[in-house]
Amino acid sequence: MNEEKSNDSWLDRLGNNWQKTTVGLKKLLPVEQVTKTVVDWFSISDERLAQILETVRAKLPTTEAILIGKPQAGKSSIVRGLTGVSAKIIGQGFRPHTLHTERYAYPSDDLPLLIFIDTVGLGDVRQDTQTIIQELEQELERETHCARILILTVKINDFATDTLQQIARQLRQKYTHIPCLLAVTCLHEVYPQDVDNHPNYPPDYEEVNRAFTAIKETFAGLSDRATLIDFTLEEDGYTPVFYGLEAFRDNLAELLPEAEANAIYQLIDKDASEEIGNLYRDTARRYIVAFSTIAATLAAVPLPFTTMPVLTALQVSLVGLLGKLYGQTITPSQAGGIVSAIAGGFLAQAVGRELIKFIPGFGSVVAASWAAAYTWALGEGACVYFGDLMGGKKPDPQKIQLVMNEAFKSAKERFKKVK
Hints:
Layout: H1 2-25, H2 33-42, H3 46-59, E1 63-69, H4 75-83, H5 87-93, E2 95-96, E3 101-106, E4 114-119, H6 129-141, E5 147-155, H7 162-174, E6 180-185, H8 206-218, E7 225-228, E8 230-231, E9 242-243, H9 245-255, H10 258-268, H11 272-299, H12 308-325, H13 332-343, H14 346-355, H15 363-390, H16 397-416
Parallel strand pairs: 1-4, 1-5, 5-6, 6-7
Antiparallel strand pairs: 2-3, 3-4, 8-9
Helix pairs in contact: 1-11, 1-16, 2-11, 6-7, 9-10, 11-12, 11-15, 12-13, 12-15, 13-15, 14-15, 15-16
């Protein structure tokens, strides 16, 4: 229901913008100046995009999670569990941040809800522990509006944790206000030999209890809470794949401010992708409404076929801009390919739109309505396309077509009401 109200609000803005634009265009002669003038009025600069993103970013309940643990201790699995993104996407998403840390923002760098800082090289005797600590301290000294939490990851059968203890001790002494969660991972590695799957949570095996107690004692005073998790891959054969996720989520929530805790719950909820998609789409519609207004105004020029190349270029630019918003850097040719891929059966209608201009008086109005509605629908479809990519999923053509058809229908009906 909220999504529908938001959509109606943006469609109202589309109609109002077009009405104001056409009034202004009546004062412009000759007609050849129309295209350049309208594009100038509604051009979207990188600076303007940055301003909008910064405004939205400042209001986001973003959590910065600093993951500290040895390689293969389950840090990337924690990212998968909290975001639902595939292991392949996560592997591509982490980027070097400093010499000993990597950064991954979800859903994107521009509008992140979760930012993961992963320590690399921990446990390598060739690495200087103090250098790692200094880099983490520099990260924690950086001013940010994000809530922060330290997550220590330890495999349940790893008791060589002196380096991790040293890092945790120094950080906790200096940053007492930053909460710390101890996540004990890879539980299945100490299950009894006759057990081939996870039991009901929490696991009540002597081997698990004994090891967990010992690790908690080792890290006494260095963490605020401790939890058992076992996040595996589908091919490992354990179910559920994210064993202990709810307990992990609840422990995180207890240590985070209310807004950030609610965001964590929404992320793990089955409707998380829809909630995140609505956030991005609301920002994207700032651009969709502007480009739809341009398209309508250009299509109103009563010269059949002369505006098609300009409209096509306009729509390709819109898709490229939306891709950037969703963290996808694409070339104009790639954007054109995406337009072709998601537009589907609208192409034939586009030709019909241009031919109808031959009807005196009536054709241009219909063409303008069609162009605005189609550009709006294309923008909505692109949001679904890029949203799937950002979430690590393969775009679903049927879902995109359904969204475009609904968006086209509602935009065209709303546009017809504009006098």
